[in-house]
């Protein structure tokens, strides 16, 4: 195991050491290999679930609404986040590798936070989409056009890269006054910035990044749901309120799953609550690993269009077939359904 500089005087400082020290799950350092199986299982299930959602949305022409495009981006961020976490987690589980080179640590930190901010941004975009669909149903198609969705996607990408691209370079050249021992099983920029000397402005920039994404986004999301709740109170029947609420169920579950563990971790760190280390570590695993695993299940169960098309695609003999749901709406005239001739390219009555 590589050694770390242990500083004994408060005024001493050092440039970044070639390695950081990661902290694994307490109590598992003696025999770490057994918990590699749950980690691999969670990762493979996450990759399978999100890949299925990506596959269905990419192949089905009917799934071209804004909510499906945002779901596509959410699955990309989930796969990216889980993949970015795995190297150090599996290194700890399989080889008890607590040391990580500074370059690899900063690279992992960059991708973890890029995909985290991407997920937060997409959840915000989905909340705005649901608010417009429920609060302004007549203006919804005109408000969320393909051009607007493209601009939202570009803004999300530029936000993720613009916020986090400077951080690895800043942290790589900052002086460090503490032993470079991290408090997680992966590299996070608040954790790395905390080890820097007081007065280093990179730590302030790190705080700005956290506040601009992980505080602003949930506030705007809950504001959107406040508007949705206000509109639903004026809906006439209980059945209409139930149907409108069902359209938001999967997204609201994903929001709570992503933000509640993060808020709890922030409160624990800020208030210095006497929480056992294994509870703190487990909560961080829940925050990063559970959403990529659960989100595909939530959207497959709650969204009828996704669920039905997954089942149809998995049925044998579905290749090349056109179901009734796939017939374009302009072929339905005054309630009379028309059939499409696949050989003659013509339309005729049944």
Give the uncertain stretches in residue-range form.
Answer: 1-13, 319-325, 327-350
Characterize the overall form.
globular
Return the average pLDDT rounded to an integer.
Answer: 78
Biggest sheet statistics: 2 strands, antiparallel
**What is the helix content?**
55-70%
Strand order of the largest sheet: 1-2
SS-based class: mainly alpha
Helical stretch tally: 12
* Cα radius of gyration in angstroms: 24 Å
Distance between the ends: 75 Å
| Quaternary | single chain
- The beta-strand count equals 6
Report the order of strands and helices. EHHEHHHHHHHHHHEEEE
Strand content: under 5%
Summarize the structure in words.
This protein is mainly alpha-helical and 350 residues long. The strands form 3 sheets. A two-stranded antiparallel ribbon has the order 1-2. Strands 3-4 form a two-stranded antiparallel sheet. A two-stranded antiparallel ribbon has the order 5-6. The N and C termini lie far apart (75 Å).
